[in-house]
Predict the structure of BolA family protein.
Amino acid sequence: MTSEELQSIIMAGLPCEHIELSGDGRHWYATIVSSVFEGKRLIQRHQKVYATLGGRMQTDEVHALSMKTYTPAEWAAHPQS
């Protein structure tokens, strides 16, 4: 899977204001900004992202996804490098 494919999958199921992905095709690192995360705990945010992947985690198409999730306000306050 390419980063473009993974980004399309996530964005199809989750409205994202910003998304950054890097990885090797199976192991991914993501930064995701979405208003859907408002009022959600970290685990709930991650569950929302995992839900967009459907069975791709179970079939090992995406072996690992490490993520940082932010609301738009959190992202605006986050120091950008």
